[in-house]
Write a structure and sequence with these properties.
This is Protein kinase domain-containing protein. InterPro entries: Kinase-like_dom_sf, Meiotic_Drive_Suppr_Kinase. This protein has about 450 residues and is an alpha+beta fold. It folds into 3 domains: about 240 residues, no CATH class; about 110 residues, Phosphorylase Kinase, domain 1, CATH 3.30.200.20; about 80 residues, Transferase(Phosphotransferase) domain 1 (Transferase(Phosphotransferase), domain 1), CATH 1.10.510. About 35% of the residues lie in helices and about 25% in strands. It has 11 helices and 22 strands. The longest helix is centred in the C-terminal third of the chain and has 26 residues. It is globular.
């Protein structure tokens, strides 16, 4: 089977809807009236797709036949959908799997799609296209995909005209969906994004500082190089190979709208947090929350002269589980206020911005502990930190070397997301686990010396 046959043979099945059950609510992590100009058409994209795939239409690898057979085996079962999660699973089979087969076979790309958890990004996009290594930018995420159900997002005939006319209406589903995707793209400094309700795929490209181009709708009924699979292959390839791989300046300065905890880094300094910018510079890690380094700086015109390096832990609270985790971590810090600055980081402030992101602004406690930057003295410091935490009736809940930070010979516990009140038996087990970590480290040192 060649590429031309692959693009013709894949026939997306109609969704067999069971119950109209929305599992997530649409969020708007960017105010379009402030940050996004009117949408404009992405002219010439069909010709660009043809130029990329046209020379390869007669390429004949076995991988393509296997891809089609796998889709035929699974598509009918997965076409029974009752909510967004079901639609995403179907989309992975119909759109993502053949796209990956083409990219790997024709362009030798080591790439994949995944949910957001394994990728360094802010927010909670449904799917992220990434490459396994990138020595230049040291970033794996290249393209973000936001999914909706066809019954929750019924796309208009002319999405550009509709958005530009309704952009002031925060309840409009199309405005919400595009604003959400634009927010994720700018937060993560990416050029490309995709919006799909399974029946229609739109590709989006950022231009300038506030511009956004939108492709024509790629319909699931289209075949060949006009199909959504061809379009998705093109945008993934483009997101990796374009000379400028990172997007134009994004929204990297935030102001907290709703404060939950107000503190400071010096008891003699009262910080006017509503007049403070949180300026993000670099991604550190991503799990349930994104951890970013940056700086706390006064807004222009504010009579406050102090600046402070800090770490930002950012939760996308549009998911109830993330909101619950963020609130639990904030409570842990407030309950452990007596330990802040000595055994755990100081929580400078906590609050919400844009109605969808919850920030914990934390003291910069140095480097994450690792085998390379600790010595024997570290373990006594770690023991003191754990014992201080246990004296407050809590366990850390996720004890590992990476959840300590070290600076100038001082070790502190970080990442209190799993910190909870616990009985003495659990605290004893955690101390025992710390001794096992120490033993493993000591054995590794002996082996290294040999």
């Amino acid at each position: 089977m060649n590429l031309s046959q692959l693009l013709d043979e894949i026939i997306p099945p109609r969704i067999r809807k069971t119950v109209e059950n929305s599992t997530t609510r649409t969020t708007v992590p960017a105010y379009t009236r402030e940050h996004l100009a009117d949408l404009t058409p992405w002219v010439g994209i069909d010709e660009d797709i043809k130029n990329l795939l046209g020379p390869h239409l007669n390429h004949f690898p076995r991988r393509f036949l296997r891809a089609v057979e796998a889709i035929e085996d699974r598509a009918d079962i997965k076409s029974v959908c009752g909510n967004k999660s079901d639609v995403v699973v179907l989309g992975r089979t119909i759109y993502e799997d053949p796209t990956l087969a083409i990219l790997k076979e024709l362009f030798s790309m080591e790439c994949d799609f995944a949910d957001h958890c394994g990728i360094d990004n802010i927010g909670d996009p449904d799917r992220v296209f990434y490459i396994f290594t990138d020595r230049i930018t040291k970033s794996r995420a290249k393209f973000l995909m936001e999914w909706k159900t066809p019954w929750a997002l019924r796309t208009p005939t002319d999405v550009i005209t509709h958005f530009n006319r309704e952009r002031g209406n925060p309840d409009d589903k199309v405005v919400q969906a595009i604003s959400q995707l634009y927010g994720y793209m700018t937060f993560n400094n990416l050029i490309h994004g995709g919006l799909c309700n399974y029946e229609v795929l739109y590709l989006l490209r950022r231009i300038g500082d506030t511009g956004l181009q939108v492709s024509r709708p790629f319909l699931y009924s289209e075949r060949g190089i006009r199909s959504p699979i061809a379009a998705l292959t093109y945008i993934c390839h483009c997101s990796v190979t374009e000379a400028v791989e990172r997007g134009p300046p994004g929204i990297h300065t935030f102001v907290l709208d709703d404060l939950e905890v107000e503190g400071t880094w010096d008891k003699d300094i009262k910080v006017p947090w509503t007049d403070i910018n949180l300026r993000i510079s670099n991604a550190v890690s991503k799990n349930i929350a994104s951890v970013m380094s940056g700086e706390v700086v006064p807004r222009e015109g504010t009579r406050f002269r102090y600046r402070k390096r800090a770490f930002f832990k950012i939760y996308d609270i549009t998911r109830p589980s993330n909101l619950k985790a963020a609130d639990a971590e904030i409570k842990a810090y407030t309950d452990l206020k007596a330990l802040q600055g000595e055994y755990v980081p100081t929580l400078y402030v906590a609050g919400t911005t844009l109605g969808s992101l919850k920030f914990l602004v934390l003291e910069d406690c140095g480097q994450t502990a690792s085998d390379e930057n600790i010595d024997r003295d570290f373990w006594s410091q770690a023991r003191k930190a754990i014992e201080a935490l246990h004296a407050c009736g809590r366990t850390h809940g996720d004890l590992k070397l990476e959840n300590f930070a070290v600076s100038n010979g001082v070790a502190r516990l970080i990442d209190l997301g799993a910190c909870r009140p616990a009985p003495e038996i659990d605290r004893f087990v955690e101390r025992f686990n710390l001794s096992l970590l120490k033993r493993d480290w000591e054995e590794a040192q002996v082996e290294g010396a040999d």
